[in-house]
Amino acid sequence: MQSITNGRSYIPLLVLILLFGLPPTAGWLYIMNPQWLPDKHKNNGTLVSPPRPLQSLHLKDGNNRNFDWSTLSGRWLLISRNRGVCADDCRQQLQALLQIRRAVGAERIRVEQLLIQEAPVAELFTDTSDTHAEDLNILYLDPDQLTEFERLFSVSGIDPGRATYLADPNGMLMMGYTASSPKKDILKDLETLLKASRNWTTGVNNGHDG
Predict the structure, then answer these.
(1) pTM for the whole thing?
(2) Nearest to 109 by CA among 20, 204, 4, 17
(3) Residue-wise burial string across 124-160, b where 16 or more C-beta atoms lie within 10 A, e elsewhere
(4) Which alpha helices (DSSP H) does 33-174 contain, by range?
(5) Which terminus of the chain has a lower count of CB atoms within 10 Å, N or C?
């Protein structure tokens, strides 16, 4: 009788572990094991395995303050990088990622768009007509962070010049896409991950619309 009572006392703890420990891994597990998904989805991007924590990269915001990655906790991140002036190809990429974010509809509140600028310039955009993307976060890289930056964003088979990267709501870099990756491929992966991780981030961003 004593052993049964002791066993039951662990049940609430096990329930808590399942509720709070299992959901954060759902998105990654689905991507690593696409056969678990009903539609037999195959990821279109290149997996970063194991995923890499972006918190080790120290960036600056537009006011030259240290950027706090925790401000984006609970959001899926669409990340692009740029050197020098954001010219036509850079602007087109930003616009494509903005369209992807809009295409997920109401789920866009769980997605943020980041541009990591590798070198400061006096005027980032030569034409501001369509570059001030909705909720675009522009972050700046200090020269002493270049080695760490290259380590994090080096993905086999992907030229970093106009690559797109996807990070999960814990700030882990998960996937990379080449410059030629169709927009619909990135969108399909993002939609799958948003669906798989819905319970994970539900409530995290309530009251904060993007």
Answers:
(1) 0.74
(2) 204
(3) bbeeeeebebeebbbbbbeeebeeebeebbebeebeb
(4) 88-103, 146-153
(5) N
Number of domains into which the chain is organized: 1
Q: Is residue 206 part of a domain?
A: no
SS3 173: strand
Type of residue at 177: Y
Report the chain's C-alpha Rg in angstroms. Answer: 19
The answer to whether 47 and 82 are in contact (CB under 8 A) is no
The first and second tokens of residue 62, run together, are: 């537009």
* pLDDT tens figures, 112-147: 999 998 866 666 776 655 555 556 899 999 889 999
Full domain range(s) for residue 172: 2-201
Domain of 25, CATH number, reads 3.40.30.10
Alpha carbon of 96 to those of 15, 45, 131, 164, 180: distances in Å? Answer: 42, 16, 11, 10, 12
Q: What is the DSSP letter of 67?
A: P
